[in-house]
Design brief:
By secondary structure, the chain is mostly beta strands. 11% of the residues lie in helices and 50% in strands. It is built from 5 helices and 33 strands. The strands form 7 sheets. The protein has a 7-stranded mixed β-sheet. It has a 6-stranded antiparallel β-sheet with strand order 19-20-22-23-24-32. A hairpin with an 8-residue loop joins strand 19 and strand 20. The termini are far apart.
Length: 443
């Protein structure tokens, strides 16, 4: 019986060989784990790049560049063909790093340029034609390893070589940004902080680049530590650089822009909060998508009987008024964990106050105003309530459902105590119009 089975199996194998020829190939373990084509291409590209590195060098992924890649594809010389810019470090030296430029010719890659810098990490990288002369400049910022201090290397790329413009005298900075000037060229803005005194100060410098020379055209020192700078459109057809100057218990916002007499600070506005706990909140952002960047300020609750922190306070977004001040364009009560945003009408802000109040597992935001008798009365309250809690809780006649979120199993509820305050109408439809729900729907 066994012999008959063996003969049968051999016959089947012979038939397969006859019809398939001699190309029958059993899958090897290697072929079973072969990566997808896209991954294979990435691997081949990495092998290509590393082949131009020395034995003591390796690729690095600069965390400060918000990029998960150790190399970028850029058309540096404007010929329509992309070069590869790869960042590397020297494994045998803690302070040697830089980048390679690889170019392709006749389907072959070759090393076009290699830049060597000295530091512990790459903090900044940008490719620009700074003076609009048709020649590319490359900006490389490195962390020096001495505290938070950084140095800027500025290279001019020619067909033959990569020229270090600074020639050893590199710009020292803590914060850096590129900005435009009135001639549609580019300037470099840096902040350098002095921490040797208790209050601290920041030196703000604007550098202009022309004919291979980098020269300061503005230099001023302000109190506070410059924790953030952002070049953006700050008004209609108007650009500028916002600077966040951190003090012990407040942040001073400066607006630096070019005027007829040169660069100058045209607006200064203090925000009375310690923003240390707001490190995850972006201070400058185009919140209302009008093309103009806004500044975040906080509207603090009068009483906070909850675990809510700065990130869940009402965020008031301010925009430059074109003169010496700021104006509010949005006021948002946002809870990402509960999946909603509530926009407080701007016209209500001068009359309203708010508290956070905990009631069992529910956190209410109580909004109240002063009446004609100079007494404070609650106007309305809003909360995100778990569906099960809502189904089992004692509900009042003033409570209305504004919306729901099946994904988060939340019901958004308002309790309206007064239908009007200071001439403003408050009802369910008005509050529903203020609500945005992520993954849910309004009533």
């Amino acid at each position: 019986m066994k012999l008959r089975k063996i003969v049968y199996l051999l016959s089947c194998l012979s038939v397969m060989l006859i019809f398939c020829g001699c190309n029958l190939e059993l899958a090897s373990p290697e072929s079973l784990i072969t990566p997808p084509k896209s991954n294979q291409e990435k691997l081949q590209q990495k092998q290509l790049v590393t082949s131009f590195l020395g034995r003591e060098e390796s690729l690095i992924m600069p965390e400060a560049l918000n990029s998960a890649n150790a190399y970028q594809h850029l058309d540096l010389d404007g010929d329509g063909e992309e070069e590869i810019v790869a960042f590397y470090t020297n494994k045998e030296s803690n302070f040697m790093l830089g980048f390679l430029i690889l170019k392709q010719s006749e389907n072959q890659w070759f090393l076009k340029h290699k830049a060597v810098a000295y530091g512990t990490d790459i903090d900044y990288f940008s490719v620009q034609d700074l003076d609009e002369d048709g020649s590319t400049e490359i900006l490389l910022g490195v962390s020096t390893g001495y505290g938070a201090q950084k140095e800027l290397y500025l290279y001019q790329m020619t067909e033959q070589e990569l020229v270090d413009i600074a020639d050893g005298e590199h710009v020292v900075y803590d914060q850096i940004a590129l900005a435009h000037n009135e001639q549609n060229g580019n300037v470099i803005v840096t902040a350098r902080m002095d921490t040797s005194v208790l209050e601290g100060s920041s030196n703000i410098t604007v550098y202009d680049y022309n004919y291979g020379t980098l020269a300061p055209v503005y230099n001023e020192t302000f109190t506070g530590y410059c924790s953030e700078m952002r070049f953006e459109q700050v008004g209609e057809n108007t650009e500028g650089v916002y600077l966040a100057m951190r003090h012990n218990h407040f942040v001073n916002i400066l607006l630096l822009k070019e005027t007829q007499d040169g660069f100058a600070v045209v607006m200064e506005h203090p925000l009375p909060y310690d923003y240390e706990e707001m490190s995850r909140i972006q201070m400058f952002r185009d919140e209302n998508n009008d093309g103009v960047v806004e500044i975040i300020s906080l509207w603090s609750p009068e009483i906070n009987d909850s675990t809510k922190g700065y990130e869940e306070f009402i965020q008031v977004w301010l925009q430059w008024d074109g003169m010496e001040g700021l104006q509010a364009v949005d006021a948002i009560l946002e809870s990402s964990s509960d999946g909603y945003r509530f926009s407080v009408p701007l016209e209500w802000m001068d009359s309203l106050y708010y508290d956070f109040r905990s009631q069992d597992t529910i956190v209410w935001a109580d909004f109240y105003a002063e009446n004609d008798n100079m007494e404070f009365e609650t106007v309305f309250s809003i909360a995100a309530i778990d569906q099960i809690v809502w189904d089992n809780m004692e509900q009042t006649g003033n409570m209305v459902v504004l919306g729901n979120n099946p994904t988060k199993n939340k019901i958004y509820v308002a309790e309206i105590r007064k239908g009007e305050f200071n001439g403003f109408r408050v009802d369910a439809s008005r509050l529903i119009s203020c609500l945005q729900i992520e993954g849910g729907e309004r009533k």
